[in-house]
Amino acid sequence: EYEGDRDGEGQRHGFGKARLPNGDTYEGEYEHGLRSGHGTYRFKNGALYTGDYLQNKKHGKGVFFYPDGSKYAGDWVHDQRQGYGEYLYANGDTYTGEWANNKRHGQGTYVYKETGSKYVGCWVNGIQNGPAELIHLNHRFKGRFLNGKPLGRGKFIFDIGCEQHGEYIQPVQVKETEKEEEDEDEPPLPLEPVWKVSEITKLTPWSPHDEE
């Protein structure tokens, strides 16, 4: 069903309201039969998008409300979260920063609602990766991350005015010789990186690019 403006060829053009066969509805601008310009799309499952369209795709600036209560407000390119945007997750966490192909990618800040901790730094394909700072209530960690875990040289900076320098080392997986037959196919669990302290100092300038 459609009610609204049409062009000379009878295609939807200008402003209109439509109900789609799947029960979704759209109210907004059209260009020659395609959703283009500003509009609001309501999904049957309760999700809602309001923002810019280009040739039936979310493109430009827009806000998407997901059925689980989460929400994204920011840039879109060809139906994907891409550019800069803010995502409020269902658990109350937030991410503000760069996106590519629907994933956190580039520079961004992630705030954990439960602890109030903040990750400020690089992301690759949705995962914490690269130079970053992890800010906690009364101390912070400066260093590098790889696949969501800190790795290599870094330092903890404490609000009381001192620092702890050291590095995160990836422990080596020890193979058990007497393994049960049926466990053969199970992949080994990745071990958590271990922090090794090298020194405790007064506050010093340091960046992840400092390699001794």
From TrEMBL:
It comes from the Eukaryota. One of its GO terms (cellular component) is motile cilium. It holds the Pfam family MORN. InterPro entries: MORN (IPR003409). Residues 1-12 have a biased composition (Basic and acidic residues). Residues 1-29 are annotated as: Disordered. Keywords: Cell projection, Cilium, Cytoplasm, Cytoskeleton, Flagellum, Meiosis, Repeat. It is found in: Cytoplasm, Cytoskeleton, Flagellum axoneme. One of its GO terms (biological process) is spermatid development. SUPFAM superfamilies: Histone H3 K4-specific methyltransferase SET7/9 N-terminal domain (SSF82185). Functions as part of axonemal radial spoke complexes that play an important part in the motility of sperm and cilia. This is Radial spoke head 1 homolog. It comes from Pheucticus melanocephalus. The gene is Rsph1.
